[in-house]
Structure formats: structure tokens, C-alpha cells
Amino acid sequence: MTGSDAQFPDLDSHCVLKIGDEAPDFSARTTQGPLTLSDLRGKWVMLFAHPADFTPVCTSEFLSLSRVADQFEKMNCVLLGLSVDSLPAHIAWVEAIYREFGIRVTFPIVEDASMAIARAYGMLDPLAENTATVRAVHVIDPAGMIRAVVSYPSSVGRSVAELLRLLAALQAVAEGNRLAPEGWAPGEGLLLPAAETESEVVATGPAWFHRVAGDAAS
Contact at 8 Å (CB) between 180 and 147? Predict the structure, then answer.
């Protein structure tokens, strides 16, 4: 599909993607030139929708994301913004951000005027009175699978620090044999899956359901 002329279903038949689903592929125009999602295989992708260009909360998010864009890049992650605004609107907004705040938005912003991509990813609120996307985040792994989905209302900005933490946690547990506990941050201990058999429980002891990776008891 493309962001400008793709066919899409009725508003009532919006898609709801789940963790573990394959991320729908698309080709679209962006502020950094044409882009096809599947061309980014081998990298993590954080695809995030914002309700509209030239809006207060969205501007605050883009300022914060731009300040730490190099951190995402070091983690082999491509930031990819999206809204239903046109490419000229995206470019004008990016230039206005630089002019007013001295911050360059260096990651691509996808044009989705037809709403085809937003529909495919379930980024549109079927109860909304307009076509603004919710603050949806889809974290896509290097194989093209969705590993996390987060949605905020348009009135509440996302935490960029939490997005970085989420990405780091997903990468830390990507092999499937470790778990990230509450509030986990890079450099902290991970957990082992709970013991699943009676013999494992007996061998592990009372803490069989909460084992820190690397502990002697594990």
C-alpha cells in the first residue's frame, strides 16, 4: 500500500494489530524521501503516530525525540513518525520547529493522507469526530514482527524516556530466555522464567517463581 492512494476498508472495519503479528508492509513518501517499511528489515523500528502537525503536544514530543534520536540510532532503531497530514505540511512543520527551537527533526515523517497506513495499524479512533490518529506506538523487531503496542489519547504526551526503556527491555529479552522486571533499566538484572515442573521447583527452592538471572539458586 502507499500513503497517498491505497484502497482501504470502511471506518467501521478498522484493524487491531497484536503483539506477535507481522507488521503490515507499506511504501510512502516521507520527509526523508520515499520509504518502504520492509527495506528496514535488520533494524528495530519505532513507528509512532501523532494526531496532527503544528499541535502543542506533538511538537513537544518531536522536540524530545529529536534531542535523543542518536540514542535510538545507537540501539539499531529507526524512528518513524506518521500522521494523516500531507508531506508539504510535514516539511513546513519540521522547518518551523527548526526556526523556532533550533532543533532539527532528522528522522522520517510518513505522509498518510489516504489514512491507509493508519487503518492498517489501527491508529484511528473509530469514535473520534475527526481523522486525527491516536498517539499509537508500534515497536517492530528486525524480522518485521510487532513486539509492543502502546496507545495514548491525543491530550497526553508520551514519555520519550519510557520509549527508550521499552526498546532496551525488548532488546534485552529478545532471545526469549530472560524477562524484564518492573521498572527494569539497562544494566540491571533480568529474571528467569518461573520453574514449570515439580522437580525444578524443589531444586530451585521457595523463590522458584521469581529468580534473578545469574543467581546461584537459578
Answer: no
